[in-house]
């Protein structure tokens, strides 16, 4: 019986179809994998921060009873760090200078695209404390002591604010994409709950969105 097989044309057509399907599906699969990693990292940091506050308050009392300068300054951040530093797996403690824990200019992109992007640098500002963790992520924080016992307003009972970058120095270094915010209250931690993880806003509240919805669907907004 004569041997049967595929012609070269048939093989090339098949390979072409496979290539087109791969080109259409692989980026989507990679994005989904990346999204899952970000979601997992945000939830992990939420858990780690919460654990640190719970353990420290059990030993030292609620945060409003801790001894740290109520102002936003290097001294206050350093004093606050002493209460929680033992509960993190630290790769590098960069202190209030930030050197080694973040990009050279320390800028994060908050709003807009292209020439309309607005930046905010934390490294060049005073009062922030920077830490790099062993998993490659970075976080920095400042105290908010005067509002620790506030009874009203946006910063009600917020004793410190934490910025968490899931991939450290790597881009895009933008709120809602790889940077997420948490609030340390007197006896617990909460993700920033601002309703601004959407088109035209700055992404401060995306940690709350990610933890609640377990997705990054807001990134599909072409203007985000």
Report a brief summary of the structure.
32% of the residues lie in helices and 18% in strands. The chain has helices spanning 8-60, 74-84, 206-213; strands spanning 90-95, 107-111, 118-121, 129-133, 138-143, 160-165, 179-184, 189-191.
Secondary structure topology:
Layout (H helix, E strand, L loop, with lengths): L7 H53 L13 H11 L5 E6 L11 E5 L6 E4 L7 E5 L4 E6 L16 E6 L13 E6 L4 E3 L14 H8 L11
Antiparallel strand pairs: 1-4, 2-3, 4-5, 5-6, 6-7, 7-8
What would you say this structure looks like, in words?
This protein has 224 residues and is of the alpha+beta class. It has one domain. The chain has three helices and eight strands; from the N terminus they run H-H-E-E-E-E-E-E-E-E-H. It has a six-stranded antiparallel beta sheet with strand order 1-4-5-6-7-8. Strands 2-3 form a two-stranded antiparallel ribbon. Strand 2 and strand 3 form a beta hairpin. The longest helix has 53 residues.
> Number of DSSP strands?
8
Shape: elongated
Query: How far apart, in Å, are the first and last alpha carbons?
Result: 64 Å
Rounded average pLDDT: 82
What is the N-to-C order of secondary-structure elements (H for helix, E for strand)? HHEEEEEEEEH
**Parts with pLDDT < 50 across at least 5 consecutive residues:** none
Strand order in the sheet with the most strands? 1-4-5-6-7-8
| Percent of sequence in beta strands | 15-25%
As a percent range, the share of helical residues equals 25-40%
Q: Measured on Cα atoms, how large is the radius of gyration?
A: 22 Å
The largest sheet, given as strand count, sense and whether it forms a barrel, is: 6 strands, antiparallel
Number of helices: 3
**Structural domains: how many:** 1
Structural class of the helix and strand makeup?
alpha+beta
């Amino acid at each position: 019986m004569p041997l049967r097989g595929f012609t070269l044309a048939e093989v090339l057509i098949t390979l072409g179809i496979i290539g087109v399907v791969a080109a259409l599906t692989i980026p989507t699969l990679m994005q989904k994998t990346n999204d899952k990693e970000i979601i997992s990292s945000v939830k992990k940091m939420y858990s780690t921060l919460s654990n640190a506050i719970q353990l420290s308050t059990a030993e030292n009392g609620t945060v409003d009873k801790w001894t740290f300068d109520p102002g936003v300054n290097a001294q206050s951040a350093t004093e606050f760090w002493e209460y929680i530093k033992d509960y993190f797996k630290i790769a590098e403690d960069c202190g209030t200078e930030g050197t080694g824990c973040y990009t050279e200019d320390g800028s994060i992109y908050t709003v807009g695209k292209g020439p309309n992007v607005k930046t905010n640098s934390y490294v060049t500002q005073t009062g922030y404390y920077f830490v790099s963790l062993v998993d490659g992520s970075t976080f920095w924080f400042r105290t908010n002591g005067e509002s620790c016992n506030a009874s009203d307003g946006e910063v009600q009972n917020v004793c410190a604010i934490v910025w968490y970058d899931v991939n450290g120095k790597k881009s895009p270094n933008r709120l809602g994409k790889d940077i997420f915010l948490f609030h340390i209250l007197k006896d617990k931690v909460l993700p920033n709950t601002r309703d601004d993880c959407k088109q035209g806003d700055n992404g401060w509240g995306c940690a709350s969105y990610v933890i609640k919805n377990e997705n990054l669907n807001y990134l599909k907004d072409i203007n985000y």
